[in-house]
Amino acid sequence: MATNSEKISCVKCAKPAEFMCSTCEENFCEKCQKQHLKSKSTKNHQLSPLSATKEEEECIHHPTHKYDMCCKDCEEPVCIKCVTEKHVGHIFVDKEPLFQQKRDAVLSDITTLRTKLIPKCTDTHNKVLENITQCKQVMAHIRSNIEDKAREIKEIVDAVLEKNLEMLERTEVSLLQKLLLEERMISEQLISMTEMLEELEYKYENCSPTQLLMTTRVKVTMREENIPYPKKITLPEYHTKSVSRERISRLFGEIIDSPDATEVPITPVLELENLYNNMTFPVQKVIGFTPSGIQFGRHISCMRNSCAWVSDRMCNMVLVDIQGKILDTLTLKSKGDGFHCATKNNNLLYIDKAMKRVNRLLPREKKVESLFSTIKNWAAISIYSSWITEDILIGMHNKQEAKIVRFSSTGQELDTIQRSSKNGDDLYCYPHYITEGPFGDVCASDFEKFSVIAVKRNGEHKFTYKGPKKSQFFPHGICTDKMGNILVCDNQCKYRIHMLNPDGVFLRYLLSKEDGILEPLGLCLDDCNNLWLGQRGKESVTVFKFNHQENENLYM
Hints:
There is one protein chain. This protein is of the alpha+beta class. Among the domains are: 1-55, Double Stranded RNA Binding Domain (2-Layer Sandwich); 279-555, TolB, C-terminal domain (Neuraminidase, 6 Propeller), CATH 2.120.10. 28% of the residues lie in helices and 26% in strands. The protein contains eight helices and 30 strands.
């Protein structure tokens, strides 16, 4: 009888196979199986000799007997005792050919799935995901154009209003000047006549006849017809035209509806918000725990080797590994949210608000260094250390304004991000969490503006994300993945994390209520693709596995 290795060929070189990989279900010769185990992607696969498959197995019904043949009628292996009990009168064949026939059929199905069905389905899935991303991008572009047109119309209305008010003011000044001049001339005449009247009345009442005869008579030369009559003036008029909603709508342009959109019946249940709620992205939970001394996971800074600093609102800080074991503790005197961060060199930077300084904790030396003072008259509220340039970004605010200042690693002030380069508007109110994308974009969550604000490396305003329409957005912890997608906690919804693409277009919700999260606060992605989430739930810290490679086609 031929052996398995003589009948089955190596999937790589077509030589007789001697080993089978139970993980990927492929057959290899001795040389190729060694190469298979050396590859990074397959080094953990399980391989076994094909001869092991030929070893006779014990009968599950009669453990003291081995399988000797196969029942052709029932298509199952049988021992000699099975033949006499349950398979009387059946046809029996050698088990090896039937085994090979079954194996070939399974191998054919594997080949069909691997080479045809799964690639085609994957391609279709990728195209649908591309359509979803394109749909969101187009909708965001149209929404931006509508808002731009509204601002343009508003600017025109403001300009016309200002022009008309200025014209009205000039007309008013000109008319009032003429009227005031006329009023002054008449007032002078009135004063002169009043004085003359008083003099005559005094003489009439107080002078004796002799005195009255001796006084010189004052003649009233002004006659009634000589008193000027007020000049008639022509006042301006304001003529308006009726303004209808239809005429205003025409100024905005027209949205040409998609015929595909009408195929789905729009009901109160099937609204855009509900669609977004259903677009959750499955991630695998690794572990959840509540470190002692920490009330809530308010902010998280991931270090190397799958450990992270976790802090609460009262600035109690613990360094924990992925199993929840406390490795170190740190207590500060000030309160805050995003006031600490990890550096490229695996050190910890934090803001000492009481001393108004930026400090660096060296874990190995267990030593704290004071780096530099923050800007006078500004309160430092958040910090991030760039893994690209090693610059230090600090969010600041005073009672009137807010900004993000870029410092060198030695504390030299390099740049200030405060106002939009497009219209000069203030970008921030309270940037309490900061992160940086792989392309140098600076992203901040600002809960007083209910927005995520992103600027390019040169400080140019890139986008402002306010969450899906008809839904209040209360952003907290923020981070980016290796492809530049932005993840941000939505504390208002209590159980959602928003995922945006690098241009600020909403992609999906990352987690849901079913994942056991409640009021997400802190968020950080470590170098092992573990997503650390701080929250107010039963577990103040939850770690999820976030696999970039499997979902790389999501973000094209």
